[in-house]
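Supplementary Text 2. Reproducibility record for the structural model of the 152-residue chain.

All settings were left at their defaults, and a single model was retained for analysis rather than an ensemble. We include the record here because the model underlies the residue-level annotations in Supplementary Table 4.
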Amino acid sequence: MDRLSNLKYAKGSRKNRKRVGRGEGSDHGGTATRGNNGQMARSGAKTKAWFEGGQMPLQRRIPKFGFTNIFKVYFQLVNLNALQRVADEKKLKNNVLNADELKKLGLISSTSKPVKVLAKGDIKIKLNLEVDAFSEKAKEKIEAAGGTIKKI
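Retained model, structure tokens:
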């Protein structure tokens, strides 16, 4: 009968650890599985994960160019044709769209990143958008359809 007090590991699922440096009879004596010579055979031997044995390291071999602007803002882009498609499919009743609504509709992936509306495609319905940024063309098209666009 299996009880918590007498449970055992499955046979063969647990191995004994390799005990090195315990004499020649143990099969792991002498050099203690480290090989005969070399840097890693010495006591206290350590190398960094990227160390290549004295060869010129990869991060110094490859060419360096350009730079990364740490202040660049990466927008989540929403096109007008995507808004129109979702409006047709979902029959939008609440025409006020902000980041939370756009996420629910599946047009953006995160509410923490800024959203920008671009003018690709056409919009026929009246929408009131509250987004972080928009193109001038997108603003013209939305206002021509009777909607408004507000920068937050």
